[in-house]
Each structure stands twice: as structure tokens, then as C-alpha cells.
């Protein structure tokens, strides 16, 4: 339907960028775009090859995970997207990949330490790794609980989803988000690059120190605050 | 001959995908497609460059390794394919590559541990590494024995080739298979990606734990069993 | 304006080469070209995607960092470029990237040791890593101070910017330069390759020795001195 | 001149394949093709970008390193090629690269151990690393002595250049050769892949054992000897 075309197109474009950026193999990822006025998001159908996708294939789902429009089954990770859209009111797009380096960090169940300004230009915290889910959560509604596992990790650490737009889920893989799905795609590529750099840094120097506070603060202020001076806006 | 065209085309397409997916350098791989009604499979000729291959070049071989149709010598690994088709009745395609990360694991003679859900989405066991062959097997009919070495490893561990569609052969390289040769190609790409992720995981955290049982079970059930909900089928 | 067209075109071409050479992701880099007669340089505007850049977008800046021509805000690293042009009279182009391997070395705060002739063909010193900036420098005029941090590192080690055309800034990333911006781009690609080789060398053999003095001297003489015999000039 | 066209074309094609195969950055490599009847070889001119090369630019040089035809200066590694052609009568092409993984092994001054059948399908020895040259050799006629350093390493280990068609020169980089320059290019790509696999093997398992003798022998016999059965010949 016409009212969904904008988010279907945005979700489609975002999904198509994931293999182009080297972030997904086959169908190992999904992107969604949200329309807050309509209270729905458009998401990739489950297990369909990227080369066969069309914008109109994007399934329209509400924030409780009910399919509102579309004939195909939505991505198996749809409930995770729904939980995040429902609870985090300022995000407009979500991306999930199994990108190689970020997923390897997730498999180690550890945060990605902030080692340099490439990282600090995007977030001034270690990239959090939400802990392994309890057996109860796994055996319950798994994808729904994955959304809560992410939210709980942010609550426990007092992190804001507007400041930290990416997370690892232990033994699983990364999720990223942003004001738009374009920003969420950008964040997933940044996360993969930062994950690779952090791995290399540790390989060269196992005791490499985290970035010092003055540099973290400086890079935060360059992009935020009253004196921000990065970009054209 | 016309009756072989379907498997020749399928084998050809699969062989051509291997360099496109970055899984083979030069001629370091081969794919075959099986027709169980005819009791034969089509396989790449030995040592021919991928850019010169044509569908009609695929050699037709029976399950004892005899060439039934074709003027070129079949792949030097043909007998391994023949043994697997003869003994495992439900497989329709086989792929052999020397893909970089999977081959490195094979060279270490160790299984690839299950570290995350990328792995568990495809198989819920460590990826088995068949042990180094005995001198007697090597000095006998080497490629034929390679097939038995793979089958013996599955029998010893009580693994099913319908559940675990990939194996490493120690000091050699991976084999994968599936209901179709398309699925076998898919599995060889998944294996390479999982092999890379497992290597990185160990590099970042040498004592990284295997995926916990509840997550292994959950991912098995997502794709199998009565409540399966992945994909469009 | 017409007088700036040559350096705008050179800076544009150089900026476009950075993603083509795999040295930058999104907008994580910038290149500038200098006209010493006019006392200005052309540099990429801040945060503009490479695919949208046009030569006329290059901002013209003087050696004190003042915008002389152009409507967009120049790169946030502009003051670092300005300081280097002002103080190092023989350089005509500068490139800054966050290329993966060089940035990982920067994050370890260590020099890249000279392990082989690939390195020695370009410079006969370890690639220097300027130390982490003091809190005072960071909290002052950060990008301006980054330029001084680089110059101080060269002064402390008695290095010449004509002989050593690249540097790492600790916890940040590499800068390179040369007589022209084309040479600066070339140097940034060489640095990334040498950084990768040095990492691999240490991985294979943690106590790998530096290149011995006779080989360092020989490679210096092949490209410099009266008996130089590399290239067509 | 017309008589040189065949080797000029062969050398040109080979040089152009090096960047296509990912084996050289910029001009970090050279390939030559030999005509034994004429007693000359065609080699890339020094320091010319690959995208500007034409077949007629290939310089014709005799086995003592004298330029016989051509206006450009031949590759700075020409004397190494000349020494090998003069002393090893059965080789028809030589390739020198600074390919990343092979060069890293060279920088560690160690042989690449034979860990698997990918290696054994091409040579049944560790890939030899010629030792670092003595100061006398370096300060003498460096590139000429590099050729002797390679030949001495083969003589000391009793290796045949017909069986082992590749070598590392310590702290420098690899050389490969073959009956034709096409085979030499092939060998340089094989070497790079085997070098990467051997590095990964050691990373996963530092004490990984060498391939056992029965497998080495088997793979030697598959390609050589009276019972060879690999390829179409």
C-alpha cells in the first residue's frame, strides 16, 4: 500500500547495502525502517536471497510484532526489532548482521575496548556486549527476549541508545540502529571496522591501553555539544 | 547426451560459483551433481581452468567411479565423491574446496568448535575433522579411501550426513554436501565463514567457551522440528 | 576561482583515490594539495561522502587555517594540514586516513619496525609513532596541536620530513605527505601495506629482528645518492 | 623488433596478471619471459605503473644483464633474473613480487613448513628461505648476488629448481619460476596462498605437525612419476 512505500524503499535500500559493504554473506542479516506516525516498520522477509528482493517484498510489522501488511513471513529476528522500536522512541532504523569481526568479538562475550579516535568519533564508550541469555529466556520467546537482553544491558550500564547506537549480543552477533535506517547501516559498517582494528591492536600489543579520558572527552565534544565542528551541519 | 544435461548444467553452475565466492584459487576445487535415478553424477574435469569450462565438459561418472560419458579425465577427487554418493543415499551434490580458513583448520587436525549462532544456524555440532589417514590407506587407493575416512569419522562420532553437511579431512581440506549441489556450494561458503570466525574468536580469547546447550538446542529447533520458523517454507 | 583549479583538481583526484585503494571507509580520510606561490592549499570539505564530491567543492585554506575560498566547512583536520605546510617548506601534499593496519599500530602507540626491503625501499627508519598528546594539548586547539605533535616527534628523533614521509599519531591514525599529493597518496598505501606485513611478521615470529644495517644502507642508496638506479629518472 | 614480440607479449601479460591476482601493489613486482634460442629475456621496465605498460615497453636483456633492445631502463631486479636464467637451463619465466604473506615469512627468515596437501600438490619440500646475504654480497653487486644467494640455498639443500619452483629471500620477498612465465605467475599465486594458510595454521595451533611422509610421497606421485593422474595431459 502506498502509505508504506517510503519505509519499504528505505528498508530495501538498506538491506541491499549490507552485502555491498561486505557485511553479510547470503541472507545473514536484516535491516528495518520505522514510521513512527503509523506505528510500524518495514523489514526484510525471512531467508530470501538479496538478489531476488524487491522493495514491495518488505513486510510491514507493528511494534508488537504482528504482520500488518505483506504475504511473506518477516525475518526471524523481527521480534527483536519490534521490542527495540517499542521501547526506544528515538530510533528510526535497525540493522542486524553477522559481520565477521564484530561477530567474533560477540563470540568471546567481551566488550570491544575503545582504543582510538576512530572509535571515539562514533561513541565514547566501549562497545557493549550484552551477556549470554539465561536458559529461561532462550527457551521462552527467544527473539523477543533478545530485544530485552539488549535493553537490559543498556539499563544496567546506564547507556543511552542515542549515544551508543550499537551492541553485541554474546555468542550471537551485532545489532546497530540510528535515527534512520541509513544511519543504522553506517553504524554497522563502523562497528565492523572498529572491531577489526581492536582485534589487530590486541594482536600487536596485548596490553594496549584504552584511550585516555581527555581524548575521549575531546572527541565527544567535537561531534556533540555547543562547539561541535564536524560535518556541514 | 540429453539425459545428463540437467546435472551437467547444475555441476557447471556450482563449479563456476566457487571462484565467484572466493572459495577456490585456480582449479583448487570441484563440485558434482548427482542423478539418483540414473545412478550417476556429473563432475568437473581434472585441472581445467574455470574460465574455459563449459557445461558439456562435465564428466558423467557412476557410483563406482567409472566414467560413463565424457572425453576428459574427471577430477582427481572423483572417487571420494563416488564413495559418498554410493553410501549416503540422501545427498545430491558434493563440493570440495581448499578454501583458506577451513583448510588451515584441517591442517591443524582439529574440529572447529561451535562458538556462536552463525554456526548453530547450520549445524549444532563442532565441524568434525576426520583424522589423518593411515599409511596403508594413503598408499592404497588414496581418493577412494578419503571417502571412507570421511564416512568412518561420521560413524565413529555417530553423526548424520543429513544433519552435518560438512567435514574437514586432516592435512587436506574441506568437503561439503547437501540435497542439491546448490546447497553444497552454500555449505562450503558457510564453512569458510564459520572457520574464519572461530579462528578470530580464539585469537581474541584463547579460552572462549563453546556455545551453551540451551542455545544449541534453540537454534536446532528454529530450523528443524514442528515449530520451525526460519525461511519461507 | 580559476587560480585554484589545479590544486582543487589534484586534491579531488587524491581524495577519490583513497576509497579506491581501500584506505578509507565512508569519509574517514582527507587529502590536500598545496600551491606554495599562492600560499594556500585545497582540502576536502568536512563529512561529505566521496561519491558526492566535485573538484570545485575543495575548500581553499591558507597556512594559518583561514578559509580563503569556498562555501563549505573544510575537513575537521584542516589545522593539522596547515601547521605542516607552514613549517615543512618542501611538502606539496598531505593525506590523512584511518587505514586499518596503520591505525591499529597507532593504537598500540609503537613505531612500525623496519623488517624488510619493502619498507626500506621507501624509508630507512622505523615508521615513527608520535606520542599521545598531553591533556593540555588536547584541551587546547586539538587539531592545531596534532600538527605540532608530529613536528615535535620529528625534531626529537632528528628525522627529516623529506626522508620520512609518513607518521603515526598515537591512538589516532596515520598522516603521510610528499612533494605532491599524488606522492602522499602513494605513501599512505605503502604505509598500510608495510603495517600489515610488519604485523604478520611479528605474528609468525615475535622476536623477528630488524633489517640489518648493510641492507638498510643499500636500499637507501638505490633510490638516493649519486648511484641511484631505481625508476626511469 | 619482431623476433622479440612473443616474449614481450608473454612478459607483458604476466606483469599485468600480478595486480589482477592481488600479488603486487603499484610497481612492487616484475615478471620476465625467456627465449633460450635467442639467449635473452623480456622484462618490465623499472618503476613504470602497470596501467601505462605496453608490450613493446618490455626491455630485452641477455643472460649477463646487458640491455639488447629497448629504450627504458629494465627492472632494478634484472640481474637476479639474468643469473637464474644463465644457471638454471630449464626455466623459461621468472616472477618477483612482494606479495603480503610470502613477504612476511621472508621477513621472519624462516622456511614455510609443509602443513597440507595444498602445499604438497605443488612441491614436496618446505618452501626454502635463502638466508640473509652477507655484508660483502650486499655491498657488492646486490641484485646479481641475490641470484647467487638463491642458487646457493638450492645447492646447500640439494634442491632442484625443476621440483621446487619458488623461494623466499630473507628480509626481502619471494621469487618464483617455471617452464613458462605463465607457470611462474601461477607459482607466485600458489606461494602466497600457501604462505597465508601456513600462517593461519600456526596461529590456530602453534605446534602443528608437518605433513607426514606417506602423504608427501603420495602427492608427489600423483603429479609426477609413471602413475600421474592429475590434469588432462
UniProtKB/TrEMBL annotation, chains A, B, C, D:
Its cofactor is Zn(2+). It catalyses: L-ribulose 5-phosphate = D-xylulose 5-phosphate. One of its GO terms (biological process) is pentose catabolic process. Gene3D superfamilies: Class II aldolase/adducin N-terminal domain. Keywords: Carbohydrate metabolism, Isomerase, Metal-binding, Zinc. The keyword Metal-binding applies. Signal peptide: none annotated. GO terms for cellular component: cytosol. Its EC number is 5.1.3.4. The keyword Metal-binding applies. InterPro entries: Aldolase_class_II_sugar_metab, Aldolase_II/adducin_N, Aldolase_II/adducin_N_sf. It is an enzyme of class 5 (isomerase). One of its GO terms (molecular function) is aldehyde-lyase activity. Belongs to the aldolase class II family. AraD/FucA subfamily. This is L-ribulose-5-phosphate 4-epimerase. It comes from Flavilitoribacter nigricans (strain ATCC 23147 / DSM 23189 / NBRC 102662 / NCIMB 1420 / SS-2). The lineage of its organism: Bacteria, Pseudomonadati, Bacteroidota, Saprospiria, Saprospirales.
Amino acid at each position: 500500500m502506498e502509505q508504506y512505500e517510503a519505509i519499504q524503499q528505505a528498508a530495501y535500500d538498506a538491506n541491499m547495502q549490507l552485502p555491498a559493504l561486505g557485511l553479510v554473506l547470503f541472507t545473514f542479516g536484516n535491516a528495518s525502517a520505522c514510521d513512527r506516525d503509523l506505528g510500524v516498520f518495514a523489514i526484510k522477509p525471512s531467508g530470501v536471497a538479496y538478489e531476488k528482493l524487491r522493495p514491495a517484498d518488505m513486510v510491514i510489522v507493528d511494534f508488537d510484532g504482528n504482520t500488518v501488511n505483506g504475504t511473506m513471513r518477516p525475518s526471524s529476528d523481527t521480534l527483536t526489532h519490534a521490542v527495540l522500536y517499542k521501547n526506544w522512541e528515538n530510533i528510526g532504523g535497525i540493522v542486524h548482521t553477522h559481520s565477521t569481526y564484530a561477530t567474533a568479538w560477540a563470540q568471546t562475550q567481551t566488550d570491544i575496548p575503545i582504543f582510538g579516535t576512530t572509535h571515539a568519533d562514533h561513541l565514547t564508550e566501549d562497545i557493549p556486549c550484552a551477556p549470554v541469555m539465561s536458559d529461561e529466556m532462550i527457551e521462552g520467546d527467544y527473539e523477543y527476549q533478545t530485544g530485552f537482553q539488549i535493553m537490559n544491558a543498556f539499563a544496567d550500564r546506564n547507556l543511552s541508545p542515542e549515544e551508543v547506537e550499537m551492541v553485541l549480543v554474546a555468542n550471537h552477533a551485532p545489532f546497530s540502529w540510528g535515527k534512520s535506517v541509513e544511519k543504522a547501516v553506517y553504524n554497522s559498517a563502523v562497528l565492523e571496522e572498529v572491531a577489526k582494528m581492536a582485534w589487530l591492536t590486541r594482536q600487536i600489543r596485548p596490553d594496549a591501553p584504552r584511550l585516555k579520558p581527555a581524548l575521549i572527552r575531546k572527541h565527544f565534544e567535537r561531534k556533540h555539544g555547543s562547539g561541535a565542528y564536524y560535518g556541514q551541519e
